[in-house]
Design brief:
about 350 residues; alpha+beta; about 25% helix; about 15% strand; globular
Length: about 350
């Protein structure tokens, strides 16, 4: 009697099948990653939509948009609050603002124990881009220890660590192309770092009627959600250079001369950007001198999303701006009343 033998796969056949499976996975993986990134970008756009609507609801309640950053005359160190603090009730965070000491200001790295404790560990999801690789909370940073040369001019944060979470989104205060009444100033101690009041969110409250270029043609908020890179013969160093100055979303400005006082400069203004270079300029060598210093006002809008930066417009709409958008068009989008309206769609 003969027994029928069941022939199995040979080693060669198994290797062929494994190779085919590997090829299929290699073909599918980019598609899966693209779908995931699309979902993350949609969530980022939803964050900006919430922010835009919160600002419009604030404007409806107060008949003006909030100042992007305000000083604190009460606080001994003079470090005031950012616009984020004032829109919290309009983005379902009224309870957090109710505990917050407005007079104490937004600096949470010093003696202000009230706000330091209130904001310690508080995560506001609408301030986090899901694609961003950046830390959610401030971290100590030593530029020299990280390998950045002194010539780069990036300031250390030292050992003081603030407790307020860091946002991936910044107010757009205008552009260096805005020349209305000459209201462009350098920051204190840095003639290269220039601040404009051409935008919707600037050092003073803005009425919706002053946006003569149209709310749908003017940016309010844009992304800063990715690393910057310094490259030399020793390789690349990635570093976080968001405009909150490693101090968190709550910090506004330090006390000092304002623009109307006729001073040639003004104190540092946090959580805002004055547009000086194009989108997604991440190489240190391509940044303007105004990006550096204790708080460079001209740190660009950068995104972790490939090819675009997501922004919220003055009418609450959200737009994906292409990296290839020319600088003059970006200037036009940053300024609310320069008389120039550029196509960006």
């Amino acid at each position: 009697m003969y027994q029928r033998r069941h022939k199995g796969f040979t080693l060669v056949e198994l290797l062929v099948v494994i190779a085919i499976i590997g090829i299929l996975i290699g073909m599918l993986l980019p598609a899966v990653q693209a779908v995931r990134e699309a979902a993350r970008r949609t969530q980022c756009a939803n964050n900006l939509k919430q922010q835009g609507l919160a600002l419009l609801n604030y404007e409806s309640a107060h008949q003006e948009f909030p100042a992007a950053n305000t000083p604190s005359e009460v606080n001994g160190n003079g470090r005031g609050n950012s616009f984020w603090v004032f829109v919290l009730p309009f983005i379902e965070q009224g309870n957090l603002q109710g505990q917050y000491d407005i007079d104490g200001g937004g600096w949470t790295g010093g003696s202000n124990t009230i706000n330091r404790n209130i904001l310690d560990g508080a995560v506001l999801d609408f301030l986090i881009c899901p694609s961003s690789p950046l830390e959610v909370f401030p971290q100590p940073f030593d530029a020299t220890a990280e390998g950045l040369p002194d010539s780069v001019g990036f300031s250390n944060t030292g050992s003081v660590v603030c407790t307020a979470m860091r946002p991936c989104y910044m107010a757009v205060s205008g552009s260096l192309d805005h020349t209305d009444n000459g209201r462009i100033r350098s920051t204190e101690g840095d003639a290269n770092s220039m601040i404009s009041d051409g935008g919707i969110l600037t050092w003073e409250a803005t009425s919706i009627g002053s946006i003569s270029d149209g709310t749908s043609n003017t940016m309010m908020i844009g992304e800063q959600s990715d690393f910057f890179t310094f490259s030399d013969s020793n390789g690349e160093i990635q570093f976080d250079m968001r405009s909150d100055g490693n101090a968190g979303f709550s910090l506004g400005e330090t006390n000092g001369e304002n623009f109307d006082a006729g001073s040639a400069n003004t104190r540092r203004r946090f959580n805002t950007v004055t547009i000086d270079v194009g989108l997604n300029i991440k190489q240190a060598g391509q940044l303007s001198p105004g990006a550096w210093g204790s708080l460079g006002a001209n740190r660009p809008l950068v995104s972790a999303h490939p090819g675009v930066v997501v922004v919220a417009m003055g009418d609450g709409s959200v737009q994906n701006l292409s990296d290839s958008l020319c600088l003059s068009a970006l200037f036009d989008l940053a300024d609310k009343s320069d008389g120039d309206v550029s196509s960006f769609r």
